[in-house]
Write a structure and sequence with these properties.
Layout (H helix, E strand, L loop, with lengths): L1 E2 L6 E7 L7 H12 L6 E4 L3 E5 L3 H21 L4 H4 L2 E7 L2 H10 L11 E4 L6 E4 L10 H18 L6 H15 L1 H14 L16 H4 L2 H17 L3 H9 L12 H7 L4 H13 L2 H4 L2
Parallel strand pairs: 4-5
Antiparallel strand pairs: 1-6, 2-5, 2-7, 3-4, 6-7
Helix pairs in contact: 2-5, 2-6, 5-6, 6-7, 6-9, 7-9, 9-10, 10-11
Length: 290
């Protein structure tokens, strides 16, 4: 089960069969909230989601609408077909760490770990995601944290048995945010374009700015990772993405393949990736691709 530290509200996402007609998922969500010691939970439904939280109705509806947009954009970027998105996603949002730990005990039947504040498993019959606010956090950002986990879960579903790197998961979530918030993304994209201009004709060797996604730190790492994942999912690198992901599937020869291993398996050198990505950036494709 994948564990990921997070800094805000607790969210549980379970992928299950659609239940709009018979309210099955809504009833299951309400019961899970009670078992987690959350009384009088608000349950809101959208086309792809069932959102359970302690928010008032208006705020819960706004959250659900926002997460529905995130789900749709992430699914579109990953080119998930109708069969892969027909399932409904149930999101349980907990604002208290103790409720999350009770959720682990009573719903997941797991022993809570002191430092664990997030988990998901998209391979079981009822896949789920869970993230928790750190103790004392009074202003959790439901939209951002739940949205990020939806992106990571759908990417994991699309990637099957591949062991994706953390920068790919975080970068994809950020790239989806960019496409949902074009105005706010402008400065981020401009920053990446400045540090990764197109390779000059005839130039050989030199630095590869794309490697900041896995070797960099701070803002450079975050934004280059997002740009690369946008390139891989909706940009010029989409035709290679499947091969790269396949190269991240563990084998007897490579139990823990690296991104460099995946590029090699896809018969692609890092210089080739860097040049193609930077040419794509230079054309301004990220801002206009839909």
């Amino acid at each position: 089960m994948f564990l990921r530290l997070c800094t805000a509200v607790a969210v549980f996402v379970a992928l299950s069969l659609p239940a709009i007609a018979d309210d099955k998922l809504k009833n299951q969500a309400a019961e899970a909230m009670k078992k987690s010691d959350v009384q009088d939970a608000t349950i809101v439904e959208t086309a792809h989601l069932v959102v359970a939280s302690s928010l008032i109705e208006t705020k819960a509806k706004a959250l659900a609408d926002s997460l529905e947009k995130t789900f749709n954009q992430a699914a579109k970027a990953l080119k998930l077909d109708a069969g892969e998105t027909k399932t409904q996603v149930t999101i349980f949002a907990f604002a208290d760490l103790d409720n999350y730990k009770q959720f682990q005990r009573a719903v997941l039947r797991q022993r809570p770990e002191d430092e664990q504040v997030a988990s998901y498993d998209v391979k079981r019959d009822d896949p789920y995601i869970a993230v928790s606010a750190r103790r004392g956090d009074k202003s959790p950002n439901f939209e951002t944290l739940a949205g990020n986990e939806i992106c990571r879960a759908l990417l994991a579903r699309k990637s099957g048995n591949a062991k994706l790197t953390e920068w790919m998961k975080d970068g994809f979530a950020k790239s989806v945010y960019w496409r949902l918030n074009a105005g706010a993304a402008g400065a981020d994209r401009a920053f990446v374009a400045r540090i990764a201009p197109p390779v000059k004709k005839g130039a050989k060797g030199g630095m590869c700015p794309c490697d900041k996604a896995w070797t960099g730190t701070g803002k450079e790492k975050e934004l280059v990772a997002a740009s690369l994942m946008e390139y891989f999912t909706v940009g010029a690198g989409a035709e290679k993405f499947g091969n790269v992901v396949a190269g991240l599937i563990p084998t007897d020869a490579a139990a823990t393949p690296t991104f460099m291993d995946a590029l090699k398996a896809a018969e692609w050198m890092i210089d080739d990736l860097d040049k193609s990505w930077r040419e794509w950036l230079g054309k301004g494709s990220p801002a206009t691709a839909k």
